[in-house]
Amino acid sequence: MTGTTMILHRRIAEIPAREWDDCAGDDNPFVSHAFLSALEESGSTSPQTGWLPQHLVLRNGAGQLLAVAPLYAKSHSFGEYVFDQQWAQAFAQAGGQYYPKLQAAVPFSPVPGPRLLVHPDAPDADALRQLAARALRQACGELGLSSVHVTFCTQHEYDLMGQTGWLQRLGVQYHWDNCDYTTFDDFLDTLASRKRKAIRRERRDANACGLTFHTYRGHEITESLWHDFYQFYLSTVDRKWGRAYLQPGFFPLLSQHLGDRVVLMVARQNGVPVAGALNLMGRDTLYGRNWGRLEGDWPFLHFELCYYRAIDFAIATGLKRVEAGAQGEHKLQRGYRPCLTHSAHWIDHPGLREAVADYLRHERAAIEAELPALDALTPYRADL
């Protein structure tokens, strides 16, 4: 578009929140100015953590903001959940330098949603998205970086970028759909008898071990609760990965910035918090994010706090779905269906690009073939 300029911003605070959110909309909290600001203000995304903000802004000749993209220069591949470490290793063995790279993403959050955010009054939104995608490639070249990766984007963005030569990658997550249920039992009635009994048994056992469960929203979440939750978060990170991405100040900032869109579910024993699950609310979706617990003998606590309580909340508030994050085929048996996720990748080096393209062709075919088999493992009755 004639007269359009590209600007890269090293702090999202340099971009007025109203202008950013006009493009981001109110559907997905993870691309909001508030969420991304909390990451930066807490030091979770910074040069020190290897997530250097380079947020893309396109403005017309009159200075009006047309499109934005949450963008970071990365010195590693941690916290992305779309794994490209093998690409980096192969390139290094061939004498190339894969890092730094550009990442259009929501840090530490494998949550599908828009990444090329355009102003709602734009006369041709797709033309602007294509322009934003070209601007990402331009930024990659001007900065002398190896590649740019747009991860967990919408299928529509994936298709648009694929049309102009971006490499396409699929993944799988597990989401629960609310079919106008009014109670949890309505949902259970759609399941095969054996699976229905198994879930009832898990919920009964989880609720019979001396715990009480509580749901807090926004400013109901006290500093003390956030302190407890951060310890739960660290305990889970230490057991699985040994590296905490999110800094302590991030979680209280969520309450301040996002208000009632923050939903914290807490298990207490004798009044003392022992586990918690953090969720964010979109317009029609509950997004499960982080969870953690202290050591203790509490059967099925993870399933109750993260999956079943999330379903309860979605039904009670009329949300259409629950997205429970990355990985976890165990979610299938609990009513969460497999769904494709989408990413697009631009690699500058012709040799690496060709090798990755061949790898992704085989990977996409395998994932597309696997999806019906995964769906067959869900517990739903065959007659529905």
Order of helices and strands: EHHEEEEHEEHEHEHHEHHEEEHEEH
Instruction: Please give the order of strands in the largest beta sheet.
Output: 2-5-6-8-15-9-14-13-12-11-10
Cα separation of the termini: 50 Å
- Global outline: globular
- The mean pLDDT is 95
The low-confidence runs, each spanning 5 or more residues with pLDDT under 50, are none
The profile of the biggest β sheet is: 11 strands, mixed
What proportion strand?
25-35%
Question: Number of helical runs?
Answer: 11
Report helical residue fraction.
25-40%
Helix/strand structural class = alpha+beta
Could you tell me the number of beta strands? Answer: 15
Radius of gyration: 21 Å
Overview of this protein structure:
- The chain has 11 helices and 15 strands.
- The chain is an alpha+beta fold and about 375 residues long.
- Strands 2-5-6-8-15-9-14-13-12-11-10 form an 11-stranded mixed beta sheet. It has a 4-stranded antiparallel beta sheet with strand order 1-3-4-7, with helices on both faces.
- α2 runs antiparallel to α9.
- The radius of gyration is 21 Å and the shape is globular.
- The chain starts with a strand and ends in a 9-residue tail after the last helix.
- The mean pLDDT is about 95.
